[in-house]
Design a protein that fits this description.
The protein is built from seven helices and eleven strands. The protein has a six-stranded mixed beta sheet, with helices on both faces.
């Protein structure tokens, strides 16, 4: 594993309840790279993130994360799981939600007086709030913010400890098209400006397609990783699914994958 490699997998497989979820997965994710994890429902996209976090052990093959075994360097990983929008009555300020990423795993609440630790926390929270462009609304109750504003603050929370790897599980699902595009552009900016590697699980590749470096495509019969133009093709997906697949472009340039189960849900 080179210093630039953040996640590697060789021949990795996962089994649950006697069933193989996926197998033969080869992955290399470099620092500062934006990678999407794609595939049909139930194929194990979120499970792949759980393997990276050390929550699920691979049944075969080898997985290395930040130079060690999965789970050994989780303090260097920012993680945003699948979620629903905050209730409109949630009164916690956005900036306080971001602060939870700094020391929310400790008992108690931050003390009201200063000190070096408190000063460092305030400065870092302010820094990531500005990084994600949330300065204008971060001090408002998070329940009163739009879905896109909430998502930016949650990304700030995941970034507050200066992670080397950011894991995002379907962060665009509850957003409208405009916010999907703006959050996708933000994630790419984080990759480039902070040198953070990003693994993002998605059903629909179109909002993130212009920003991606690589795609990991999981299918019931195997997996393949590479640049989007090489992976999301009729020939490649036909090989993965073992059945004829067509990849079409509409007049706006959006990809449409035709021929597999539940294609409308992820392309």
């Amino acid at each position: 594993m080179s210093r630039a490699d953040v996640v590697t997998a060789r021949g990795a497989a996962v089994r649950r309840g006697g069933r193989t979820v996926w197998s033969g997965v080869d992955v290399t994710v470099h620092a500062g790279e934006f990678v999407a994890v794609l595939g049909p429902n139930g194929v194990g996209k979120s499970t792949f993130l759980q393997v990276v976090l050390g929550l699920v052990a691979p049944a075969d093959g080898e997985v290395r994360v930040l130079g060690g075994a999965p789970g050994s360097a989780n303090r260097r990983i920012g993680y945003l799981p699948q979620r629903h929008a905050f209730d409109a009555g949630t009164r916690v300020r956005g900036v306080d939600v971001v602060r939870l990423g700094w020391d929310g795993d400790r008992w108690g609440v931050p003390l009201p007086f200063g000190g070096a630790r408190a000063k460092a926390a305030r400065e870092r929270v302010d820094e990531v709030v500005e990084l994600v462009g949330a300065g204008d609304y971060a001090h408002r109750p998070i329940g009163r913010l739009s879905g896109g504003e909430q998502q930016r603050l949650l990304i700030a929370q995941a970034l507050v400890r200066r992670p080397d790897l950011l894991l995002l599980d379907e962060p665009l699902d509850s957003l409208d098209v405009t916010n999907q595009a703006s959050v996708s552009a933000l994630i790419q900016h984080v990759c480039r400006s902070q040198g953070v590697a990003v693994l993002l699980v998605a059903h629909d590749v179109n909002p993130i397609l212009p920003y991606l470096d690589q795609v990991l495509y999981l299918a019931p019969t195997g997996a393949i990783m590479g640049p989007p133009a090489d992976v999301i093709t009729a020939d490649t997906l036909t090989m993965l699914y073992g059945t004829p697949i067509d990849v079409l472009h509409d007049r706006t340039g959006r990809l449409v994958v035709v021929g597999q189960p539940d294609t409308h849900e992820h392309h």
